[in-house]
Amino acid sequence: EELDEFNRRIVGRIEVVRSFPEVACPGKSVRRMKAIQGDITRLQVDAIVNAANTSLLGGGGVDGAIHRAAGPELVEECRKFRGCKTGEARLTQGYRLPARWVIHTPGPVWNGGGLHEREKLASCYRNSLRLAMDQGAGSIAFPCISTGVYRYPPDLAAQVAVETCRDFLEETGADLAVTFCCFSKADLELYQKLL
Ligand code: ADP
Q: Macro domain: which residues (predicted)?
């Protein structure tokens, strides 16, 4: 009888808990995201993302800056991957960078938008976030992937970046602070408007 009474109370409690309405927290994930203007190689975050090419062996733009700042050990570690497909991501150590890890992701080349560029760019953000989360990172910084020599329109790219990161944070509940590190003031303004 005592057990029955105990169970009834527990069940009662469970029902009470269940009857609470879902508490929506609009904007919670947005508060985990911020945009700054600066050089990504200087950031003290757990992981910085490199807008790499599919060879993963270094290039120009932000890729060149990251390899220069990290030192020659970075390209040595990258060799083990034997390249990486567009939209996928690979993690290495940060070597001489203040960041502990570098996540390398080749963005899509813009060809007018009809060749799945949007999905591929979203994959870059999602796969980078997933790697960071699995690694236990608490903070990650992204450059404006594909908006340099790969010619993705910066306003469209910023939309993909913010939406994909917001959805990821909401869906996974990841405890991850996201910084969009813009090189130009124009990019910073795009992100500020969206955030
Ligand atoms: P992609 O080949 O993906 O287009 P780029 O390196 O050409 O890559 O350009 C991507 C973005 O990175 C551009 O917005 C560019 O201005 C920016 N960028 C270049 N150097 C840095 C840096 N040191 N820190 C942050 N962003 C940078």
A: 20-195
ipTM, interface predicted TM-score of the complex:
0.98
Is the distance from the beta carbon of residue 160 to the nearest atom of ligand 1 less than 6 Å? no
For the chain, residues with pLDDT lower than 70 are 1, 6-8, 10-28
Question: Ligand 1 in contact with 10 (CB < 6 A)?
Answer: no
Structure tokens at 110: 């813009």
pLDDT at 10: 62
Q: How far apart are CA 132 and CA 176, in angstroms?
A: 8
Counting ligand 1 atoms within 8 A of each CB, the residue from 42, 183, 189 with the most, and so the one to mutate, is 183
pLDDT digits (tens, 9 = 90+) for 59-95: 999 999 999 999 999 999 999 999 999 999 999 999 9
How far does the centroid of ligand 1 lie from the alpha carbon of residue 54, in Å?
16
* Alpha carbon distances (Å) from 48 to 19, 36, 61, 75: 42, 14, 15, 15
Element holding 33 (H helix, E strand): strand 33-37
